[in-house]
Amino acid sequence: MRGKVPSFSPGSTVSSALPGYVALCLTLQVHRLASAQFTVTGPDHPITASLGGEAVLPCHLSPRISAENMELRWFRSQFSAVVHLYRDGQDQYGEQMQEYRGRTELLKDDITSGSVSLRIRDIRLSDEGQYKCFFKSSVFFEDAILELQVAGLGSAPAISVEGHQDGGIRVVCRSAGWYPEPEVLWRDLQGQLLPSAPEKISQESNGLFQTEIAIVITEESNQKVSCCVRNPQLDQERESEISIAELFFPRVNPWMVALGVILVLLAVLIPLASYCFWRQHRAKDKLQAELRWRSAQLYAVDVTLDPDTANPWLVLSEDRKCVRDGDTRQDLPDKPERFDPCPSVLGAEGFTGGRRYWEVGVGDKTEWDVGICRESVRRKGWVTLSPKDGFWVVRLGDGGYKALTSPRTPLPVSVRPGRVGIFLDYGAGEVSFYNVTDGSHLFTFTDTFSGTLRPYFYTGLNAGGRNAAPLIICPVPAPAGGNLGP
Prior knowledge:
Layout lengths: L9 H27 L2 E3 L5 E4 L4 E8 L8 E5 L6 E6 L2 E3 L11 E4 L7 E6 L8 E8 L4 E11 L6 E8 L2 E11 L4 E5 L12 E4 L5 E9 L6 E8 L4 E8 L10 H43 L17 E3 L5 E4 L18 E3 L8 E7 L6 E7 L16 E7 L2 E4 L5 E2 L8 E7 L4 E6 L4 E7 L6 E6 L12 E4 L12
Parallel strand pairs: 2-10
Antiparallel strand pairs: 1-3, 3-8, 4-5, 4-9, 5-6, 7-8, 9-10, 11-12, 12-15, 13-16, 14-15, 16-17, 18-19, 19-30, 20-29, 21-26, 21-30, 22-23, 22-29, 23-24, 24-25, 26-27, 27-28
């Protein structure tokens, strides 16, 4: 028997199917958003690093999805306090804090599986504290907190004999350069702890700790003892021993005994004390130089280039912040103030007093001069650069750094400067140069200034493209601050 096919209206079919279609779309969208979420995981314990060494801060995604196209940001207390930034498939250094420049490296071997690590070199005390690693995809972001602990292993204990006390010999153990506070103790030949005076621990100006502990060794007690200073955070220690012969203990004439002990120990202690003093003096000088540089940055000014003084071979940027040696000579008016043939240019700003600071990026150029000069210096012909001719300049040339005094003063530079800071104290008659890369002091001219002084720039000759990079007047970075916006 043949049946009849039932009839349906088009309107009723669409109305009944629409709710199911909307539900399906919402289900798929929720599933897509859920699958795009992830968590960021770091180590569940603090990471310990030694002063001057390096630290590796690891983070990974769960589930282990690729982070190659994400934004990865390590920062301190604020989102804008950038330690390292990876975005658009490459490292970005424009927002990085000054104190981390040249010291960080993103380890990306396992980035496609969502695992990356940040390496920080040349660890400093200021590096200690919390870090956040922040991962951001196109639809989701998350972060994790890491803790970095900094530890310093100090000098070997220096043991000195300081006379007779309570029928024995008073011996003092001293050590410096520890962080955090160390543990100090005396041991006998069998490794047993010996009673001693309370230890004295003090913090030095560089933030490191020095310690002192004394013990009285008697003739009846063990005459060979060791002083042990231990860093509990690193679980490492340094130890020194001393052995005192019986004849040095007080009997008939204690002063003669003490004199013998002192004479024996002086031969050992004087070289050690001299070395410790040299190390402390060197660290103090470095810290003072960095403090002077930081103070100079407070007087930062905006410096631009004066095109009317630029040699015709020089090419200036539109914002008058960059200058390089060009390939052709430009057809420019032969003004009296224009340098020719010397490839030099002056800053547009003149200074007749006060304090001024600016920074010049020299990059990997093999030849350059930067500094200041009198506005009245000779511009035509090859110019002699020296203070008596009105120039106070530092140079890189012939593979070495030198201050253009008369005669020249070679400058010992351990870290190649990528940027040079120049500080003019007009009233004090000083022009100081700093290596911005490591905060060290390069040289200071001392003279008596009069009239107007202007910034001076010499690009060096572009020898076959080896010196083609420009000199760049760089903005002096302000202290990091601010929060993540909405």
